[in-house]
Design goal:
The protein has 362 residues and is α/β, with parallel strands linked by helices. The chain has helices at residues 12-23, 29-42, 47-54, 58-71, 90-100, 113-120, 125-134, 153-165, 236-249, 269-274, 293-305, 313-329; strands at residues 171-186, 189-193, 199-203, 208-220, 226-231, 254-259, 278-282. The longest helix is centred in the last third of the chain and has 17 residues, at 313-329. The protein is elongated. The termini are far apart.
Length: 362
C-alpha cells in the first residue's frame, strides 16, 4: 500500500541545487533519481506518474517525498546503518600485544601466528596476521646487540671519537685490526637458467679448501687508504711485524693507532718504548665497532670475497691485494656523524635460566 502523497514545496535555493545535480555528469545515479523525484513532486506530479518516468517503484517515490518534506536536502542523504558488529575489538588487540610480551610456549624459540591464535583460543589466525601487519610487527626478524660493561666506556669512546673528529695536528691516525682465517674455497660457478627464462649466477654447494690466510689491515683515517699484509697466524709476533711495516710507511711521524681489546694488541710496552712516536688507543670492551677498519672489512667481504672461488691460497691473497690497490685508487675517508656517544643500559638484559641448561636462580 502506497502512503498518502506528501506535498513538496521547493525553495528557490533548493531547486537550484537539485537542478545542478541533475545536470552534472558526475552525479551518482541514486542521487540523480532522488533529485528528479523531488523536482517532479514539486511540480505537482502524482506518485505513480513520477515512478513511471524515473523508473522506480511507487513506494520509492513516496519515501523520498516524505524524506524531503520532513528534512529538506539533508533527508535525501543515506542514513547511517548499524551494520554488523565487529567480532574483534581493541580488547582483542591488547590481548595479542600482552601475549607477545610473554615467552613463547615451552620448546618454541619464538611466537608465530598459529601459536598466538592457539594461545588466545577465540581469535582466528588470519586476524592475528592482519593485526601484526597493521602494526608492522615482524615475528621472524631479529636484531642482536652487544652491550659494553666497560666502566671506562665513555672516556675510551670519547678518546677514539675525538681522534676521528679532531685528529692531532701533524699526526697520522690509523685504525688497525685483523681479519683471521679467510678461506680459499674452490666452488664450481656458473649461470643457472630458470624455466621462466631468467638467468641467475650461482655456485655449487660443495667446495674444496685450499687453506686460510689472516689479513692485517691499517686504515688511514684522513685519506681512507688501506695498508694490508697477509700472515698465516695472528699471534703477537705477526701483529708487531705488521706494526713495524706500518711505522716504516710513515717515518718520523706521530702515529695514533686505534685497536680493539684483543690480547695480542695489549702488553706491548717494550715495543712502544722502542717506538716513542706510536701511541695505542683501545676501544671499550665489546665495542670494536668503533674501529673504522671494521667497516672496511665488511666492504671487503661484500665487494671482493663473497661468491668468489679460488684454486689456491696464493690466488686468494693476490685477489685481495688487487682489491686493496683498486680501493686505494678511489679511497675516501669515512665521515663520523655521531656527535655524542652514550652508554645506555638495556632493560631486561638478564639471561633467563631457561636458556642456560643446568642453571638456577639463587
Amino acid at each position: 500500500m502506497i502512503p498518502e502523497a506528501r506535498e513538496v514545496h521547493l525553495s528557490r535555493k533548493d531547486r537550484k541545487v537539485l537542478e545542478a545535480c541533475c545536470r552534472s555528469p558526475v552525479t551518482l545515479q541514486r542521487d540523480l533519481k532522488r533529485a528528479r523525484i523531488v523536482l517532479l513532486a514539486a511540480d505537482g506530479r502524482s506518485t505513480r506518474s513520477i515512478a513511471k518516468e524515473v523508473g522506480v517503484q511507487p513506494r520509492i517515490v513516496s519515501l523520498w517525498r516524505h524524506r524531503y518534506a520532513d528534512h529538506g536536502l539533508e533527508g535525501l542523504q543515506d542514513k547511517p546503518r548499524p551494520g554488523k558488529q565487529p567480532i574483534y575489538t581493541k580488547t582483542t588487540d591488547k590481548r595479542i600485544l600482552k601475549l607477545l610480551d610473554k615467552p613463547p610456549p615451552q620448546g618454541f624459540a619464538r611466537w608465530t601466528g598459529p601459536l598466538l591464535a592457539e594461545a588466545l583460543g577465540d581469535v582466528d589466525v588470519q586476524y592475528v596476521w592482519r593485526f601484526l601487519r597493521s602494526h608492522k610487527i615482524d615475528l621472524v626478524a631479529r636484531k642482536s646487540w652487544c652491550e659494553s660493561n666497560d666502566p671506562n666506556f665513555t672516556a675510551k669512546a670519547a678518546d677514539v671519537v675525538g681522534l676521528y673528529v679532531a685528529p692531532p695536528a701533524k699526526a697520522i691516525v690509523l685504525c688497525v685490526d685483523e681479519k683471521p682465517s679467510i678461506q680459499a674455497l674452490e666452488r664450481a660457478q656458473g649461470y643457472l637458467k630458470l624455466p621462466n627464462g631468467r638467468a641467475l649466477t650461482g655456485q655449487s654447494h660443495d667446495y674444496k679448501r685450499h687453506g686460510t690466510t689472516t689479513l692485517f689491515a691499517a686504515l688511514e683515517v684522513a685519506t681512507g687508504k688501506i695498508i694490508a699484509t697477509h700472515s698465516k697466524r695472528r699471534r703477537r709476533v705477526e701483529f708487531l711485524d705488521f706494526m713495524n711495516s706500518v711505522t716504516a710507511t710513515f717515518p718520523n711521524r706521530k702515529l695514533h693507532v686505534i685497536l680493539d681489546n684483543l690480547n695480542t694488541h695489549k702488553k706491548n710496552e717494550d715495543w712502544l718504548k722502542a717506538h716513542p712516536n706510536v701511541q695505542f688507543h683501545f676501544t671499550p670492551t665489546s665495542a670494536s665497532w668503533l674501529n673504522q677498519v671494521e667497516v672496511w672489512f665488511s666492504i671487503l667481504q661484500g665487494q671482493s670475497l663473497s661468491g668468489t672461488s679460488f684454486t689456491s691460497l696464493k690466488q686468494l691473497q693476490e685477489h685481495i691485494d688487487a682489491y686493496v690497490n683498486a680501493y686505494n685508487d678511489r679511497a675516501e675517508p669515512f665521515v663520523w656523524t655521531k656527535k655524542k656517544v652514550r652508554q645506555r643500559r638495556f632493560k631486561g638484559r638478564r639471561i633467563t635460566p631457561a636458556l642456560i641448561p643446568g642453571t638456577r636462580l639463587v
